[in-house]
Design brief:
Blueprint lengths: L17 H10 L2 H24 L2 H19 L5 E2 L1 E5 L3 H11 L5 E2 L5 H9 L4 E9 L3 E8 L4 E5 L2 E5 L5 E5 L10 E3 L7 H10 L7 E7 L3 E6 L4 E3 L5 H15 L6 E5 L7 E4 L6 H12 L5
Parallel strand pairs: 2-5, 6-9, 9-10, 12-13
Antiparallel strand pairs: 1-3, 4-5, 6-7, 7-8, 10-11, 11-12, 13-14
Length: 297
Amino acid sequence: MQPLGSSRPPRHDPSPSRLAYRLNRLWLRPGFRRLVRLGGPVLILGLVGAVVFGSADRRVALGQHMAQIVENLKHRPEFMLYSLEIRGASSELAQALRASMVQTLPVSSWDLDLEALRSKLQGFDAVARAEIIVRGEGVLDVEIEQRRPALVWRNEQGLDLIDPDGRRVAGIAARGDRPDLPLIAGTGANFAAPEALRLLGVAQPLAPRLRGLVRVGERRWDLVLDRDQRILLPEENPQAALEWVLAQDRAQGLLRRDLVLIDMRTPRRPTVRLAPPPADPQKTALLTQAKAGAPTR
């Protein structure tokens, strides 16, 4: 039996303390919970970073280690390019493109600047467009849209092949290298290549006699035929003037006559120039003897 005079231990008060009550009320706020859940890890990471990066030696060592990891990753076999495949180009152009690009291989696809390489390829005269694709198995695939020559342009530097828009494709050594293409000549003739092609299309009936087009003053054309015949076309609407000459040729045989020049620069007043009459051989001999002081009979 417990003595009557003994005292019982005090009972625990179930009500929260003032501090616990305030902490519970604070935890019920969503903003405080987000602060604790996100701010705590960030604070810990910040402290760790301050300790790690507080030393210059540790910073350099960590940077070198990360650079080595990236370098090893970039040069893994699945990222390396070893071969080059060129499609859509002639054998000569493909050889030139390959010679300009082979120095970049082998290369990691991470180190390859596709835009710079595309600009380099499109810098070739014969390349209209270039697309570059990195394929699997270490292949760099290049698709070329090649400019097709439409005219031979004779200029101060020599002979060039140009496309229908007047862009240079390549140079040639002699006219006989491309006899299948029509000839144009003169300063600025390349800039008027589309108009030249239209005139050559109109002049198809004269194709066997056609020698080419000459750009005059960078503003108009002369159509040159065999037998030293020349048609001077106007600056404006030269096709209509050429069609008029062809119509006169069909109706009256104009170009079969002994003419050296048909001037259409003023279409309302076309003029022609006759070829000089052939010299009499007997008179030529007499004039030569007279100039030389020889006796004449």
